[in-house]
Amino acid sequence: MTEQQTGTTESAERRSPLHDEHVALGANLTSFGGWLMPLRYTSDLAEHRAVREAAGLFDLSHMGEIEVAGPQAAAALDHALVGNLSAVAPGRARYTMICQEDGAVLDDLVVYRLADERFLVVANAGNADLVARELVERAAGFDATVTDQGASTALVAVQGPRAEEIVAGLTDPVDPVAAETVRDLRYYAAAPLVLRTDDDGPVDALVARTGYTGEDGFELFVPADRAADLWRTVLAAGAPLGLVPAGLSARDSLRLEAGMPLYGHELDTTTTPYEAGLGRVVKLDKVDADGAPLEFVGRAALAARRESPPARVLVGLRGLGRRPARAGYAVVLPGDGVDTGGAVGESARRVGTVTSGAPSPTLGHPIALAYVTPELSAEGTELAVDVRGRAEPVVVVPLPFYRRPQQS
After folding, report:
1. Which of 387, 374, 276, 379 minimizes the C-alpha distance to 331?
2. CA spacing 20 to 30 A to 113: which of 35, 147, 371, 382?
């Protein structure tokens, strides 16, 4: 759940509360969703492998945090979003989307229910201001207040098989209940905890067990002015266990292996949740307090879309050669307009478009996400991608590409 990279620059509009920490670590910085953020610290491969084998520490402070609170906060979100947020129990979270009236995706979101009348909506950086404005507009008429807390909030994530051990170790050693709370926290759940820092005493944090890498992991929401203390403490505590700071490049390759969508690639305002294979997040069966169907923004269009055959379907592609597909490359039929040497001619039949693609460090072969026509979306279908004029063979495979090993 993030937006596309916009190119390397030193003139981004906004800087993370951890900017000086990234500079001190020698990070390569890039403009991303209007923020100057770390692309990598050492190497993409080393950071990717650290997350798969031990742990990585990510700065996610570019994400937007928007509080919706009040007696009708749940009802306001039920109207504003496609999910059934009133059904979320306090302390739990839900992946959902905010759509236009025509059903197109404005952003994908994670919403935490912090209390009966208090929710935290986490939006992608490039869409955060838009989502905040839309929520204010859509909450009009409800007894609920929308507050943009992005500027005062920092967010860091610890992802990887040793994440639980690292985060549990950040709790007060004289408070075993806090460490147990971390270990017992369920996936897509959150709890307020006090975490220690080495420089300036304890810090109040919202600790969530979510993630975007395919690994176990935690996201730590803290006041922006305490972010650097926490960042340094996590680095020191995690280093003996193999934790390293990780940048956007590793986060992208990790999420691609996990088959997770990237706003601006798999999701945008030309796409509904159904094309992206995420129709499950659309709750057309929501009802109001009287049991009547609940109207929400985009409902009519999405109900019609669910009943219509799709024009395109998002699939996973495994590359059978060595050259990876990249976003925007054409998916073609292998034997239609492709000569025996693999050159793609003008008559090649385009049947889809790659949305994300890269070599997979974990799997050892290229992988990609692509939209293709429905008749070519079945597992095992052999296709090709036009990689700079050459047809690279690919095959449709199930998603995700990677699943983390189950704990014994």
Report:
1. 387
2. 35
- The whole-angstrom separation of Cα 50 and Cα 45 is 9
Q: Taking CA 213 as the corner, what is the angle to CA 151 and CA 398, rounded to the nearest 5 degrees? A: 135
Parallel/antiparallel/unpaired status of strands 203-208 and 64-69: unpaired
Tokens 């017992």 label which residue? 184
Distance CA 95, CA 224 (A): 24
Confidence category of residue 9, pLDDT binned at 50, 70, 90: very low
Tokens standing for residue 181: 């709370």
Give the pLDDT confidence score for residue 141 in this predicted structure.
94
The span from the CA of 203 to the CA of 225, in Å, is: 10
Answer whether the bond into residue 400 is a cis peptide, omega within 30°. yes
Burial 164-191 (b: 16+ CB within 10 A, else e): bbbbbbbbeeeeeebbebbeebeebbbb
Token representation of residue 309: 């055959």
Q: Which two tokens stand for residue 47?
A: 């950071």
SS3 210: coil
| β-sheet bridge partners, residue 32 | 5, 35
Cα distance between residue 377 and residue 374, in whole Å: 5
pTM above 0.70, yes or no: yes
Taking CA atoms, 192 is separated from 219, 282, 320, in Å, by 12, 29, 47
**Under a CB-based contact definition with an 8 Å cutoff, are residues 303 and 325 in contact?**
no
Provide DSSP, 269-290.
TT--TTTTT-GGG--TT-B-TT
Torsion sign over Cα 125, 126, 127, 130 = positive
Q: How far is CA 364 from the centre of its chain?
A: 23
pLDDT value for 44: 98
pLDDT band for position 12 (50/70/90)? very low
